[in-house]
Automatic annotation (TrEMBL):
Primary subcellular site in the record, as a coarse category: cytoplasm
Domain Glutamyl/glutaminyl-tRNA synthetase class Ib catalytic: 17-325
Keyword Ligase carried by entry: yes
Species annotation: Novosphingobium flavum
Subunit structure: Monomer.
Domain Aminoacyl-tRNA synthetase class I anticodon-binding: 352-474
PANTHER family registered for this protein in UniProt: GLUTAMATE--TRNA LIGASE, GLUTAMATE--TRNA LIGASE, MITOCHONDRIAL-RELATED
The protein, known as: Glutamate--tRNA ligase
SUPFAM superfamilies per the UniProt record, alphabetical: An anticodon-binding domain of class I aminoacyl-tRNA synthetases, Nucleotidylyl transferase
Length: 484
């Protein structure tokens, strides 16, 4: 489906379940939006349906190309790209206006000439009388012959005044609103541009959306949108109601509305700044408000097989950054080493041997929770001599330790085999021969080889660096410190 190309009001048929994710490109793709996209994607996949994207770019002042790019980039990273090219709402303004004209012609909407000043005065009067303000426009049933020829107007929908509207929400359950509470709201502004309410309804219909799955902050909108949908009875063959599922919002760990201080960043920040893997974020978002028994680690295929709306919770879920990072650690350990090496190499400065990095991954990734930690842990592999020692590592290299390093270097120089097993046997033999614990050898060795006090196992470090580089680093630290 080309951008804005759904034409003639024809419902896209024959695809079964159709869901959509419809972000406004006024900023980054935030974590709540990513979860909404995920639930829409999963529901469509579970039912063998279609998942669509719509960019709601009608706010021209705030919609930006960088934001659109960031949304597409974030969705692509999570594997949630649309099944068809995205629809851009602004490009469909003529279609929205066409529907408004049809409603007007059918007497389901009306021209309202009330001015902003008149509306403000009525609102103030209602407040003074301590009663709810409701639009009571004298233009609702006015004959078209009385319409002023030179005054600006908006188009309002004729909302039902009696009875009630009931939504059987697939998450919230049955929700009822008295129709008297719904105003004759504007569907076309005085400049002829459509309002959000109209554009959403027309686009959902024309895109063939069968299930509207979105945040529960839109629940009130559903009742207004149904007014438009049901007003189309007898127009274009009538429009079916979609199924609704309004998902509770995400809160911080303290129960307050999610904000940046809780970790409510753009999806790109989880990837670029925090170094998380998409499968970890996918799994975490899945479990943020939905569950399948006690399962915590859920693959993409399992998620598709198991996902339903019945197990989406009705209460706000709580975002826990530490839990997300721990989950990421699991996925790091499961990840392909060559893939990780490529991701980590991009975070390192200077020349990097990705082959060596890949060989190091099995011993590096067991200690890390994110790609940044992996990059920091791998830095010793490509450090140039003389190594810059961390303060604690330098503190280990006392005179006695440097003497030990000289003796270790001499012993290792003649090692017949440079493997973890052979090196372990050699060093354990030296420790026993010198009457020392293995740690007394390993600590200064680690400092000399990595410049740090923490690293993978010392035998793994020796193998990864190789004989020549290992001996050069040990000898460099075994030499007496320069005199001041």
């Amino acid at each position: 489906m080309a951008s804005g190309s759904v034409s003639d009001g024809a419902v896209t048929g024959g695809r079964g379940v159709v869901t959509r994710f419809a972000p406004s490109p006024t900023g980054y793709l935030h974590i709540g939006g990513a979860r909404t996209a995920l639930f829409n994607w999963l529901y469509a996949r579970h039912h063998g349906g279609t998942y669509l994207l719509r960019i709601e770019d009608t706010d021209r002042a705030r919609s930006t190309e960088p934001a659109i790019g960031a949304i597409f980039d974030g969705l692509e990273w999570l594997g949630l790209a649309g099944d068809e090219p995205a629809v851009f709402q602004f490009a469909r303004s003529d279609r929205h206006a066409e529907v408004a004209a049809k409603l007007l012609e059918a007497g389901k909407a009306y021209r309202c000439y009330l001015t902003q000043e008149e509306l403000a005065a009525r609102r103030e009067k209602a407040q003074a009388e301590r009663r709810p303000f409701r639009i009571e426009s004298e233009w609702r049933d006015a004959d078209s012959s009385t319409w002023p020829s030179d005054a600006s107007y908006v188009v309002r929908i004729k909302a039902p005044r009696a009875g009630e509207t009931v939504i059987a929400d697939e998450v919230q359950g049955t929700v009822t609103v008295q129709n008297a509470e719904i105003d004759d709201f504007v569907i076309l502004r005085s400049d002829g541009t459509p309002t959000y309410m109209l554009a959403v309804v027309v686009d959902d219909h024309d895109m063939g959306v069968t299930h509207v799955i979105r945040g529960d902050d839109h629940l009130n909108n559903a009742f207004r949108q149904l007014v438009i949908i049901r007003a189309m009875d007898g127009i274009e063959g009538g429009w079916p109601d979609p199924a609704y599922a309004h998902i509770p919002l995400i809160h911080g760990a303290d129960g307050a509305k999610l904000s940046k201080r809780h970790g409510a960043l753009g999806v790109d920040a989880y990837r670029d700044e925090m170094g998380l893997l998409p499968e970890a974020v996918f799994n975490y978002l899945l479990r943020l408000g939905w569950g399948h028994g006690d399962e915590e680690i859920i693959s993409r295929d399992q998620a598709v097989a198991w996902f339903d709306l019945a197990h989406v919770g009705k209460s706000p879920s709580r975002f826990d950054l530490a839990k997300l990072q721990n989950l990421n650690g699991h996925y790091l350990r499961e990840a392909d080493d060559v893939r990780l090496a490529g991701l980590v190499a991009a975070r390192m400065s200077g020349p990097v041997d990705q082959g060596l990095l890949a060989r190091a991954m099995p011993v590096l990734k067991v200690r890390a929770k994110d790609l940044n930690e992996l990059a920091a842990g791998a830095a010793f592999l490509f450090a140039q001599r003389p190594l810059v020692l961390e303060e604690k590592a330098a503190g280990l290299l006392t005179g006695d330790a440097r003497g030990l390093l000289a003796r270790i270097a001499a012993a290792l120089e003649g090692a017949a085999e440079w493997s973890a097993e052979a090196l372990e046997a050699t060093l354990k033999g030296l420790a026993a021969e010198w009457g020392l614990g293995l740690g007394k050898l390993a600590q200064p060795l680690r400092a000399a080889l990595t410049g740090q006090t923490t690293s993978p196992g010392i035998f793994d470090v020796l193998v990864l660096l190789g004989r020549e580089e290992s001996l050069a680093r040990i000898v460099a630290q075994a030499e007496p410190a320069e005199q001041a």
